[in-house]
Amino acid sequence: MIEALKNKLQAEVERLNHEISFVLPKEIEKARAHGDLRENSEYKAALERQQFAQARVHHLRLRLSKLSDVREQDIPKDRVGFGSRVTVEDVDTKIIEVFALTLGEFIEAEDDGTEMPVSMASPLGKGLVGKKVKDKVEITLPMGKRKLKIVDLHTVHDVAEGRS
What we know:
alpha+beta; 21% strand; Chitinase A, domain 3; 5-stranded mixed β-sheet; Helix Hairpins
């Protein structure tokens, strides 16, 4: 799972680098040929896209460097950690929710929309990390305190072995 995520990030970096190096310079040059740059919306749009692509590449490289520190064998097999899909029940409302723990805002959730991505750095993520099935946890969130019970857990190891 971690290698697949690294490959996906690297592919996006390569795509953006191609766009920055080849596609956008042509668009900027084409827009410059239209004349007055102060009122040239094509030129401004191409420059903005170039700035966005450069910022995104920088961000993706940071994500890749963080991922290079993650070793799959260091992730616990029976506790909540990076890449875990955790099913919790709210103790008060009895509502069931499924969370996918990520390293940040980069989302690797399934396309079926049944799970919500949660950063391990968020209050909810910090509260769940290291917990086991049947553990109860009280988490202080900006919207108030929540009491959750972990009812099911699938770790990255379960996914790698096809058990999830």
